[in-house]
Amino acid sequence: MTPRQSFFACLQRSPPALFEAALWICAEHDSEVDHEAVLANVRELRQRVSGGLPMLPVSELAQPLLRRMNDLGFAQDDATPLRPQAALVNKVLERRRGQPLALGLIALELARGLEIPLVGVNFPGHFLLRVPGADHLLDPCGGRRLYPNDCRDLLHRQYGPNMKLNAEHLMNAEPVQMLQRLSRNLRQLHLSHDDFIGALIDAERVLELGNANAADYLARASLYQRLDCPNAERFDLEHALLLSDDPIQRIRLTERLGHLPPNSIVH
């Protein structure tokens, strides 16, 4: 199977193999990724983390797990500009630096192996974690507890004071949602480093995962524009137009479509 086929096969398992799916994303960008070696590295890390955990019920071990990861050097990657390695889980395991989502995926895999209850939360701008039933969230970058006021402050730092915290921001994330967010992150990181083919690989995965929005089609259309593929660009612009509910955006999309050459048909 191709890495993309293996990626989707991981999602078909019950329960879905979230970390392994994220690892197959790495393999799409680097054919030299040694799948088994990375998984062995995770098992070794799990043993190191486990050895430093306190004797508490598993329901109370999520925050100690995150703090133990931090003690072992795992932290948010603050490099400027941020590179794709901050989102690729194999590179994050090597460097111990990454985006909150990549750190969260590693933490979720460690928690799964140690039977510690932990789920992902697709909080805007900064992926978070939760122990089911707890009254707080956890920052994967060190384990800090976040209560509603902390979440509101985090949201305002990311998006400004006019952004309102709502229940949707605090919902548990399904594996497909986390992997789609990861794919969007990688799409942007590859694009910011002018790796248009790498970004296109991620853009296609975002759409294949389903429930794509107008912005997702626009992102791929822009990549096709850079790669001089007008027919593919037209296809995505037309889909974005169908999905958009912004009147101004619809006008701009219609104008952009009007400037494209007619579809070329190959017989």
TrEMBL record:
Belongs to the UPF0162 family. It comes from the Bacteria. Residues 39-183 form the Protein SirB1 N-terminal domain. Transmembrane segments: none annotated. InterPro entries: SirB1_N (IPR032698). PANTHER family: F-BOX ONLY PROTEIN 21, SI:DKEY-261L7.2. Pfam families: Transglut_core2. This is Regulator of sirC expression, contains transglutaminase-like and TPR domains.
